[in-house]
Known about the structure:
The protein folds into four domains: 2-98, Single Sheet (N-terminal domain of TfIIb); 108-179 and 405-566, Rossmann fold, CATH 3.40.50; 181-298 and 316-399, Dimethylsulfoxide Reductase, domain 2, CATH 3.40.228.10; 660-773, Barwin-like endoglucanases (Beta Barrel), CATH 2.40.40.
Amino acid sequence: MRKMVTNRRKFLKQLAAASAMSAAASMFPGIVFAEEQLEGLPKGLINWKKAPCRFCGVGCGLLIGLSDGKAVAVKGDPKSTVNKGLCCVKGYHSVMAMYGKDRLTRPLIRENGKLVETSMEKALDLVAGKMQEVINTHGKDAVSMYGSGQWTIPDGYVASKFMKGAIGTNNLEANARLCMASAVTGFISSFGLDEPMGCYEDIDHADVFVLWGNNMAEMHPVLFSRLLDQRLKRPDVKIIDLATRTTRTSVAADRSILFKPQGDLAIANAICYELVENNWIDKGFIEKHCSFKEGKTNIGYGLEDKFKFSDKAGTITFEDFKTFLQDYRPDKVEAVSGVSARDIKYLASLFGDPNKKVTSFWCMGANQHTRGTWINNLIYNIHLMVGKISTPGNSPFSLTGQPSACGTVREVGTLTHKLPHGVVANEKDRKMAAEIWKVPVERIPYKPSYHTVEMFRALDRGDIRFMWIQVTNPMVTMPKLNRYRDAVQKDDRFIVVSDIYPTPTTDIADVILPSAMWVEREGMFGNSERRTQHFEQMLDAPGEAMSDTWQIIEVARRMGFNELFPWSKEDHIEEIWKEYARFHEGKKHGMAPYEALKQAPGLQWPFVEGKETKWRFHAKYDPACEGNSFDFYGKPDRKAWIWARPYEAPPEIPDTEFPFWLNTGRVLEHWHTGSMTRRISVLHQAMPRSYVEINPEDAKSMGIKNGDQVRLVSRRGKIELPASVHERGQPTKGQVFVPFFDESLLINDLTLDAFCPISKQPDYKKCAVKLEKVNVIN
């Protein structure tokens, strides 16, 4: 009888699923649903297994439904404290990204200008042989690897060990340099250590949320839904959207304040001016827990090759800092920021109210900035001036864009200057890495080599001859793309690309290695709130596709480094994790053990004596602290640093020839360059191609209507695409906005490769363009 009931339940579930699909198809006849949605309906029982989402840095916990050797369903994991059972539209459709018809399943090598199939053994032999040939001919610094915040933690760790410990070059970078480097340098310069001091639980305690240039409703929708939920539960909660264009976040916010590009620097200083002027600061906190610093100004923009810069901190007094702020009275700041003195005073009153807990969120708007480190410092300044930090609901919180930009890049250290626990310039850190890796310390170079932009410039110049690109699409994402696309196609350059689908980057490859995706292999991601999340291998990868971790190991062994990579294919992830965790032992950054990660939806570090650390730098929550209150132990003086950072103009501003600002970014339906989400038919048809948002007044004056074809031109390139007027978003007058997900409309042909000299992160948010209506001849 019990078996009959079980079978009936299974039948009813499958019938309900099929009915839902049929109903949806009839309601939306213009949409052709993906074959996977219809053909992939489960024929047997569904087995649910946990995994983090494959897409953004929020790190939502998913339950993947498996049936007959295929992923057939997704739901939010109710045990995950990140999303509490909820997903965004990308998360709900995430498993479909594995089943595109053009999935790469066999290696390809370029012969006589054409890509031809080969075996994985031959492809790996060729990669190892070519890498060794370049080293023998041009030296070890002529080879490089470029990875991603989409790498798993084991991927990044093995890449670091391979490049820095085995080959002995610091030519290792990841695309998080393009999205999170300013967050890193901001944390380190203000606190001495990287990663947020707070966590997502701050949302449940905060009274005010200030969003600094962050379209959270589209970029981090699950977290934004938690903000909205708090406002429903507690009507006094306020959401303030501080942005350069009107978005869905603006519409949902309690107040939308629009500022001129780069004006955020002046606004932050003006808020501090008001805090001091009105005596809203926490003097006791400042005296006990803060130091005041100044650095070099007029620091350049990194536009020239081999740009060098150093920024040494000088100590100043609180009185010096007050004098510095005199240039940032709200009435003075109005002109440069575009924000009224009244709105600046309002913002300051929210931070200054002793009865309100304030959490700030930001992402690419602050970090993709030629003064990205500075604006991070300035947001911290505000929180430090009022002592609203490191306690529940009081957090300055930098969000991430990729699933493991924190775990694999910031924690593992897959950047030229980093090691898994420190920096290459520090002898003690090099000795520790050498001991764990069992290599001579002399093999690990003490000087950083090339950050991402300079690495591609070095490829252009010929200083680098070999580049291995994994899990990223730089031929869409690099700024000033024309230069770097030309660079990789020079005859004496050799490019290897590991990916799951054809992209503009695989188009320029000499070898393409098919990669296993996500739950087709075991791994870990690290999300924005210091949460490490393990996922097991649930499915077999198609054809000869192989995990990026194992690809690197196979090449390393072919190059003679067998003793450094002794792990078996069956248990290599567990062994890699245990070796990697040795770098972070202790109360400041202890990682959860492998066995615990396998069981939990995710665990936050520092993980000490079986417990997660939710808030850092306060003794009530953080076991690494000394004393009984705040302890900013990342700095030698155990104090947080408040920086005097001035407003400086961008390197390129609109003029008579190029009168518009160009801003770029993302959309809700697609993730980054769209190489996965555009193969999910529902998402692709919801947002099939890119567009340019134009302010309605500008559009009217130029005779441009919604859908008209227009041309954007910068000093670097041009592009034609349809106009979007009065649709999803609305730029301010004199500004246009273009998303970058569409590989057929490469907006980065126009962008400028200027970067923050401290973080080396490029600014994708502002350059000068002209806008022209295209006369279409029928």
